[in-house]
Known about the structure:
excision nuclease; alpha/beta; nucleotide-binding; P-loop_NTPase; DNA-binding
Amino acid sequence: MSKSGLHVADSHDLIRVHGARVNNLKDVSVEIPKRRLTVFTGVSGSGKSSLVFGTIAAESQRMINETYSAFVQGFMPTLSRPDVDVLDGLTTAIIVDQERMGSDPRSTVGTATDANAMLRILFSRLGKPHIGSPQAFSFNVASVSGAGAVKFERGGKTVKERREFSVLGGMCPNCEGRGQVSDFDLAELYDDTKSINEGPFKVPGYSADGWYGRIFGGSGFFDPDKPIREFTEKELNDLLYKEPTKIKVEGINLTYEGLIPKLQKSMLAKDRESMQPHVRAFVDRAITFTDCPECGGTRLSETARSSKIAGINIADACAMQISDLAEWTRGLDNASVGPLLENLQQTLDSFVEIGLGYLSLDRPSGTLSGGEAQRTKMIRHLGSSLTDVTYVFDEPTIGLHPHDIQRMNDLLLRLRDKGNTVLVVEHKPQTIAIADHVVDLGPGAGTAGGTVCFEGDVEGLRSSDTTTGRHLEDRTKLKAQVREPSGELEIRGANTHNLQDVDVDVPLGVLCVITGVAGSGKSSLVRGSIPRDAGVIEVDQTAIRGSRRSNPATYTGMLDPIRKAFAKANGVKPALFSANSEGACPGCNGAGVIYTDLAMMAGVATTCEECEGKRFQAAVLEYEFGGKDISEVLAMSVAQAEEFFGDGDSRIPAAHKILQRLTDVGLGYLRLGQPLTTLSGGERQRLKLATHMSEKGGVYVLDEPTTGLHLADVEQLLALLDRLVDAGKSVIVIEHHQAVMAHADWIIDLGPGAGHDGGRVVFEGTPADLVKDRSTLTGEHLAEYVEE
Length: 788
């Protein structure tokens, strides 16, 4: 016992961090109370995630991994130790982040949460007729059978025996468990009135005098002067589907391949977001996805669908709204599967409790929003008996209507009251208000952030003069005048997902906000019902696929004019100024660091000695433009580069225009050469918005652009949206933030509830009318938020 009468084991009630330097943290030291709810606040890019995820959670995970044997560690992801002097008092960390769930077409809400596995066992035990093991109900298992001779040693002799095996799986053989089949619209691939020599292809880059045109023309499989509509069946098959075949064209040995497999490999294998706009538009036009005709989109074989419990097969069960499925399982009473039913019941009830009762188990996990994915991951922790664990959340209120945030707050407090330490990165005042302890980082973003501005309770934060403290009580006035629409987008009979034959006119030329509780049908209305030909540019928060070599300069296309300007000024070729091409440092191949894999121990990244992390050959760095070499340009922040390329000798209008757009969306603090893998969800969305701002489309659809934005940054976002509308664009925003609603010219409110209790338009009109009516949940919350 210690002098104070406290047992020495009870004295470790703090997580101590000293000298954290991960990313932009500047020797940060904090003490976080255990078994309490601590909220981390600060502007976007101030270092919250670096402290919570990159330091505390990362070290906890690394130390847990080290408790396993070297053999097991060899199969686990290797984590390097965060750059921090002291980390004391850590407990096991469970990370519940917003990483979207894998968008594998065979991954659904059911497969991601084990609910599907339990249902499969249930049907394999109680389903009539009995068809086989749980595998027979899985759309990820194909049916296979085989027979043959096997050799083995027995008593010093080699014995041969015939063996047969068969696996009965539930996968639909036509769509291979995907539920959808893709089809090419041939009319969008070529004009069949033209011959090959006349250039019939509508595919970007497939002109008659280009390489592809010459390969098709010189292949000898069909007459290049005959219109395609006159081709025989064999000729058309050779044009579209022929297997790779060696041919000689113009004296060069080549491989000829049919048009459709060629397109599948070259275009369909790429991430849609990373395509150039004209290629993306072509892919959207040329490829149609339809429900598989054999399984009706259920992904399951006919055999799997034939076995039923109380008249319901497994496909029907997975298609039910989870709240209804929970009711259905309550009606099943069979002692032989008692424990299984109890477990399944608990999982389904957790869905309802966390506010996801409107989903169905067959919903593809790639279609869940970041907030829904995060809440789905929370489900397995709700009923957990573990205590004294550190739960780490990344903006758990994303995608939640103010009405739903109260429920999320109750869950966070429940986890804390079980004796756990709860760390939350959050911007919403409603959640900051329930914190026991607040750590405010800042004062700015990027290099201007990374220090602790305030540590203490919520009252202390309110009275502190930090950016967060000043904005915590922010209220917005309703607009005195709203813009008049210049036209309207008609949506008639929309019935995607839970929409109930919705007819609505979305006004154009104004800022239109679509709102409603989570699961009320907002995304279904915007994504599933707006006509494709309306010139819509959609900007969401899905991850940008890119390697650690991708950065804002390469993603936005800004590096091209910069490389050309360097090349022109020095009389050399542009490829020298690419770290992925000829200019790459030979020591590290342009990565700037050398990765050493140490098997099961954390890999080590050491700065390359040859280029000192600059990524380029020494000879390339001698070439300058405007007094800077290429590595110095990539080390600049967007704001510095905007000034540099704006005027004087170093003026590059094409690069300056892109930099201006990045500043407009609030990314002035990003470095041009910063790896894309280090960006947050909100930063990714704003980067995409900046790239799309130059496109010709007139209608912008934004999915919760306030995600990851500090209260202070929301004003800047609203100014940007205003600028877009004033430039003649139409902006449609799916949003829950009251400040954005109050700023709208027109609001479409969906509801009244979620799932089959939603899917209807409950209000259309101006924000002032919504506040006056107070007829919907949104109206109630908006009325409380705005200043009278």
